[in-house]
Amino acid sequence: MTPTVLHTTSFVPDATRLIIDASRAAISERGIFRIALSGGHTPEPIFKLWAATAGDLPWDRVQITFGDERCVPPDDEQSNYRMARHSLLDLVPIPPGNIFRIQGELPPEEAAAEYDARLTQLASRFNEPRYRHDLLLLGMGPDGHTASLFPGTEALTEQTRNVVHNFVPKFDTYRITFTYPLINAARHVCFLLQGDDKKPVIKQILAGDKAYPAAHVIPTDGRLTWILGWAAE
Ligand code: 6PG
Fold first, then answer.
1. How far is the CA of 29 from the centre of ligand 1 (A)?
2. Ligand 1: which residue has its CA nearest to atom 7?
3. Which residues surround ligand 1 with Cβ inside 6 Å?
4. Strand 188-193 relative to strand 135-138: parallel, antiparallel, unpaired?
5. What confidence tens digit (pLDDT) does each residue in 145-165 have?
6. Which atom of ligand 1 lies closest to the CA of 149?
7. Are 109 and 170 in contact (CB under 8 A)?
8. pTM for the full model?
9. Residue 127 C-alpha to ligand 1 middle, in angstroms?
């Protein structure tokens, strides 16, 4: 499967358009849109524009999960959930029961086990061996990490569970993260990247370099898109 690479200087509108198009297609085909939100700073303006332009999207047909979370309470400024709440979830009529938050306030192992079990239970409702996102958003750091799959960390080797707790030495803290089996089960994975500091790594990944965690996002039976917020060089 060859990834789609979109260079754009209209990053936020183009990324938002992809999300809205994916939501309409999923709801039309399967009656539900299952999306995993990425964290960090990049997605925030995209979530805001989505909230402002979603129009008549039936939010009761949207199911929200989170690709990773810091081990902090939901109102902590480090929380990915908090960012999504302020930029999207509090601005749209989505039923609270459709939002599946990672409980970062719990001990890391417990938070991961709870979320893993939750996704397993949801998958069984869809008669799936593993929860299958319609669209799974990811960011990437300048070190090539994605979600909280950081270079040299244990979570990179997880082949069974959907979600694990992962100690990240560079931050001297745990994170809760999707694993490759869950990410690669998605119908469509879309990386959203902005920032000159990421250009060297993405260039190497697109050239086939497998040294970086983001390079191992290879949907088993799905699409992979990179939306890069800069003009092609
Ligand atoms: C997180 C994210 C992480 C993020 C990248 C890019 O919790 O930080 O999930 O994987 O997507 O670090 O972050 P920026 O968008 O802030 O550059």
1. 31
2. 39
3. 38-42, 67-68, 80, 139-141, 145-148, 195
4. parallel
5. 999 999 999 999 999 999 999
6. 10
7. no
8. 0.98
9. 31
Per DSSP, the three-state class of 213 is helix
Q: Give residue 65's Cα distance to chain centre.
A: 8
Contact 215, 146 (CB under 8 A): no
Separation between Cα atoms, residue 165 and residue 76, nearest integer Å = 19
Residue span of the structural domain in which 101 resides? 10-216
Q: Total structural domains in the chain?
A: 1
Q: Which atom of ligand 1 is nearest to the CA of 139?
A: 11
CATH assignment at residue 101: 3.40.50.1360
Which of 83, 136, 140 has most ligand 1 atoms within 8 Å of its beta carbon, as the pocket-test mutant? 140
| 138 CA to centre of ligand 1 in angstroms | 8
- In-domain check, residue 166: yes
**Residue 19 falls inside a structural domain:** yes
Q: Virtual CA dihedral for 86, 80, 76, 93, nearest 10 degrees?
A: 30
> Taking Cα atoms as reference points, which of 208, 147, 221 lies closest to residue 180?
147
- The model's pLDDT over 30-52, given as tens digits with 9 standing for 90+, comes to 999 999 999 999 999 999 999 99
